[in-house]
From TrEMBL:
Keyword set, alphabetical order: Metal-binding
Keyword check for Nuclease: no
Family listed: Belongs to the GTP cyclohydrolase I type 2/NIF3 family.
Pfam family, one: DUF34_NIF3
InterPro entries in the record: DUF34/NIF3, DUF34/NIF3_sf
Gene3D superfamilies: NIF3 (NGG1p interacting factor 3)-like
Source organism per UniProt: Sphaerimonospora thailandensis
Binding-site list for a divalent metal cation: 67-68, 106, 232, 236
Quaternary data: Homohexamer.
GO cellular component, one term: cytoplasm
Transmembrane region(s): none
Name of this protein: GTP cyclohydrolase 1 type 2 homolog
């Protein structure tokens, strides 16, 4: 088996998810790690948090690839007195590198929203919801069609089944009997694309982090798509398997074997609902 270095793996990741595609405010690329260190095991996860570091160290990973950056804004310290500093210290002590592919993976072809679209049942050719100015094949979100129209209630149930479970299930806005065929999706926070989903002629828009006022105003318009609001982590998690598969395939083409693993540790910020804690929580409401 031919061994490879961290620098070689990072080069392959950046060939798939070019850092130049990232938003100006984003922080992508190698966070820590020696470019000359050997890489045999790569763990893919959404968030660079303590539970993921635990998993990486337990498994003996040489590299963790996360979607979300550890440091999105500038910092002057990686002291172990903060949780981010502790992540850096533990990774370095364990010989584990950290690499991030964030908004560059969001707009890639294929990227985060392609994986989300497939997870919720879109089988037709996908197109970007908001194409990139420099390459219309890339861009934010995806639009596709279902094999056959189904009521919103059925699509919502199918979509929820295709996503990993989190404490709170997806929320739905719209007529549950409305027929759905054209679907728009966006992994992560997508309420900036509400108008774009309407213009695309979508029957339903599935994304995460929908805020009250934009969603309320959107639903007041008669011609807009229904909405499905899922957990942020859940809408981005399907991409991990795609990224892992593409990396291992690219390395195999060079005669290099790299073992990849997708973390199923749920790192969504919300860990329970009040009905989980006590089914009587909503008695008397309404």
């Amino acid at each position: 088996m031919i061994s490879c270095t961290l620098a070689e793996v990072v080069a392959e990741m950046e060939a798939m998810y070019d850092p130049a595609w990232a938003e100006p405010w984003d922080a992508v690329g190698l966070v820590c790690g020696d470019p000359d260190q050997p890489v045999r095991k790569v763990l893919f996860a959404v968030d660079p948090v303590a539970a993921v570091v635990d998993e990486a160290l337990d498994w003996g990973a040489d590299l963790v690839v996360t979607h979300h950056p550890l440091y999105l804004r500038g910092t002057t310290s990686v002291a172990g007195t903060t949780f981010k500093g502790r992540v850096v210290h533990r990774l370095i002590r364990g010989g584990v590198a950290l690499h991030t592919a964030h908004t560059n993976a969001d707009v890639a072809d294929p990227g985060v929203s392609d994986a989300l679209a497939r997870a919720v049942g879109l089988t037709s050719e996908l197109r970007p919801l908001q194409p990139s100015a420099d390459d219309p094949r890339r861009g934010l979100g995806r639009v596709g069609t279902l094999p056959a129209p189904v009521p919103l209630r059925e699509f919502a149930v199918r979509a929820a089944a295709g996503l990993p479970r989190t404490a709170g299930p997806p929320r739905v806005a719209g007529d549950l009997e409305r027929m759905v065929r054209t679907v728009a999706v966006c992994g992560g926070s997508g309420d900036s694309l509400l108008g774009t989903a309407r213009a695309a002629g979508a029957d339903v828009f599935l994304t995460a982090d929908l805020r009250h006022h934009p969603a309320s105003e959107h639903m007041e318009a008669a011609d807009g798509p229904a909405l499905i609001d899922a957990a942020h982590w859940a809408t981005e998690w399907p991409w991990l398997a795609d990224a892992a598969r593409r990396l291992t395939s690219a390395m195999e083409n060079k005669g290099i074997t790299v073992e990849a693993r997708v973390s199923d540790t749920v790192t969504d910020a919300w860990t329970a609902t009040t009905t989980d804690l006590d089914p009587r929580a909503f008695e008397g409401w309404g």
